[in-house]
Amino acid sequence: MSSTPTARGQRGLLIVLIGIVAIIGVTAVAANRTDRIPRGTSVAGVNLGGLSVGQAEALVRRTLAPRARQDTVVVAGDRTVRVKGTATGVAVDVEATVDRARSVLHNGALLSRLLGRGGQVEPVLVVRESVVGRKSKALAARLSTPVREGALDFSQGRARPVLPRTGTLVEAAQVRQALLASATATNHRITVTTREQRPTLTDDQVRAAADTLGAVAVSGPLGLRVTATGANPVDQSLTLSVKDFAPYLKTTVTDGALALAVDGPGLIASLAQDLSGVQRTARDATFTITNGKPVVVPSVVGRTLDPVQVSESVADALASTGPRVASVGLVTTPPALTTAQAQNLGVVERLSTFRQKFPYAPYRYQNIGQAAARVNGTLLLPGEVFSLNRIVKERTPENGYTKGFVISGGRLTEDLGGGVSTMATATWHAAFFAGLERIEQRAHSFYISRYQPGLEATVAWGQLDLKFRNDSPHAVFITAVRGTNFVRVSMYGTKRYDISADSGPRTNVRSYRTRTDSAADCTPQSGSEGFTIVVTRVFRQAGKIIKREPLQTVYNPADDITCQKPTPSPSPSVSATAKPTPKPTG
């Protein structure tokens, strides 16, 4: 059957179209492989058309990349916040941006880019999502004005209305988009929109509540009756004046109106002395060491007021215009660790003890003492991990620590908490010989002669910690005692192993340098050799070796540093000679 002229024409047209598409495709692939940017191509206002890849990258690196490092000003209503460009977590990916600009396939604008009309290309950004997200949330919070609900203030013994205030909300997602947009913009002042948040109550409603609810609440004294039944019954009554209970009153917005609320814990705390004869705090069982043996100190069941019951009973009583008495009952509060539980923990004998000496210095005495006091009495249950940083807390003046010498950058410097590593060393030594599992332990960066090499530890808040796990089926009780020039750490539980330490030779010994430092903040120090040592922890049961655990420590050489003040200019009447500063012992 012969084809018609129409069919032959359609087939011919199809062949022509396929050919055109093929030519365009081949041309596109070829163009996409060129090292030239299509003419007319620009990125964020920077013209890259006709440049080689290398030239384009240099131009983007010189013009666009610095924009992301510039400070950005974010404006929301009448609030303005400046953000450091280096803190936004956004940067320009130079190579990817140029690669996108070079590609004729980008944005689907194939024909126009083949014809030399490159057009606008969006830059490629490197976005650290965790940083951008955190910064966006923080900025949104600073740019927002929280809505203030109406309330009553009872702090002065009367009901004073606190009028509501409309708030404005800035969304974190909007701030994020603004930060990304400003990264390559020439104008680094961006405005974000705010959304109004209206309070629940009106000014008139709050004023009316002050004249009714508030006035009744502080209209007179309050009676508080405390009762308890059982073996030790209690029936005690107190009379509280307005000034006694008013500071613990507040209001909440409930079902479209103000409702009276009471700070139960705060009110109970204020009555601690009045109720000292009927309240007692629950106390966990613990241990004391008598004649070298751990002995259980019994737990105590607590009997206290229930904060929720106090809040509800007092709020109900203060709503009355007649005689006002709140009746509350004492409730028992069990200890977290009972006597019976403690007796079954297997704390029956001493596992290890270690006494670490140190040269007396006031800062050491204070800091080691603070750390020892916090470690003393620690009970490590089976499976729990001991963290020295968590227990001794951050080394701040508020936590009782003072400045002393620490190792930083391979030399002695002054910082808060100097000496706490002595506590870490004593604790790790005791844990080592108690056979506890090592989780995190790091020696000092250079060797300090008073410590046993390879069997010491250092800590630094937020950087280095001492951690070990109680991998035994029994609890471990830890004691710590500081003397004038020593700290002793002991551990008690049920012995599983006989532990010994095999110390290998010092290898890879490296000499230290001797130098003089005239810096104003110089701290002198004695030099020490660097070396590597392996200490093997040997576990034995019934005289038989169960396992060996090699622990390698690498010590860096420590420079011998002499601090020397600059020699002053010669004077006709006074001659001065620079003298070295005596070196601390570390």
| Helical residue percent band | 25-40%
Low-confidence stretches: 19-33, 105-115, 570-586
Alpha carbon gap, first and last residue: 106 Å
Proportion of beta-strand residues: 25-35%
Shape: flat
Number-wise, the strands total: 35
Main β-sheet, in a few words? 4 strands, mixed
- Please compute the radius of gyration using only Cα atoms: 37 Å
User: Mean pLDDT, as a whole number?
Assistant: 86
Give the spatial strand order of the biggest sheet: 14-13-20-19
- How does the helix and strand content classify structurally? alpha+beta
Count of helical stretches: 14
What does the model show?
There is one protein chain. 27% of the residues lie in helices and 31% in strands. By secondary structure, it is of the alpha+beta class. The longest helix has 28 residues, at 5-32. The chain is built from 14 helices and 35 strands. Residues 19-33, 105-115 and 570-586 have low confidence and may be disordered. Among the domains are: 219-341, no CATH class; 379-416 and 429-563, no CATH class. A 4-stranded mixed β-sheet has the order 14-13-20-19. The protein is flat and about 85 Å long.
